[in-house]
Amino acid sequence: MNASLPSPVSGLAERWRGVRLRPFGLEPGDLEVDFSGERLALVSGILARCASRPGGERFDAEELDELRLGARIEGLLRLAILADAGARGAGEGDEDEVEVERLLRCVGCDATVGINLPLRALADLQRAVAAIEVIEAPTRDGGRVKLRLPRASDLRAWGRGDAAPGDEALLARLRVGDAAIASADLPAIEAALAAADPLVDFTIDLTCPECHARQEAHADLEELALARLAREQAALLDAIHRLARAYHWSEEAIVRLPAWRRRAYLDRLAREEAR
Ligand SMILES: [Zn+2]
Known about the structure:
Elements: E1 15-16, E2 19-21, H1 39-50, E3 51-52, H2 61-65, H3 69-88, E4 99-105, E5 112-118, H4 119-129, E6 134-138, E7 144-148, H5 152-159, H6 167-174, E8 175-176, H7 186-196, E9 202-207, E10 214-219, H8 221-247, H9 251-256, H10 259-274
Antiparallel strand pairs: 1-2, 2-3, 4-5, 6-7, 7-8, 9-10
């Protein structure tokens, strides 16, 4: 499939909301990222490493905690697209859509169904909702309730026990104004939040090719992008391993080489082994 949605800037010059992103998995600090760590800190940490302002200034992880959740997922998806472009050796302006296969299980017949997720089109979904800051949902008593969209810092405060557990406690943090939220209003509020932040709880209308059952399938896009970036880190470790064995250089020396020179040495080793 070719890119179905126009992307303002793409390829290796990918930008994320006026922010410059560099590919993950090429620089010394990228080895420090612990993919088994807590998810909120992991995502902020990766974005803080890879994102910089147009002038080159970096962001603090704390600043990235204040981004809404969908924007963080968009950033990760754009890093996954960059990783893919790097792996293909694609140049700037390369317009190919990047598809990632996801296996889902049919709720009707338990068949495994593979779907292709177009990462660039998904990341662009966030652009369409980027301007939304506050949502409004109808209440059962005929009123309306306004909420701002959740940020990572909200989830952190919530998870740490600054608010009582339960969706209602999180919604109380997000409420703008003093309209009461009744539990009967939760479905409408959740629907409005989901519409304004489509990447956060991403669902796909799926028709099973085996039993034809129609269903809504969930795909965790954050997890999907993180898995792609974990592969980049594993590839860097593989490169260090091969170069250290061949040349007896230290990890630090290898990781400080520019990526193109690591590749050049790896190519030479591969050519030698092929002889
Ligand atoms: Zn089925």
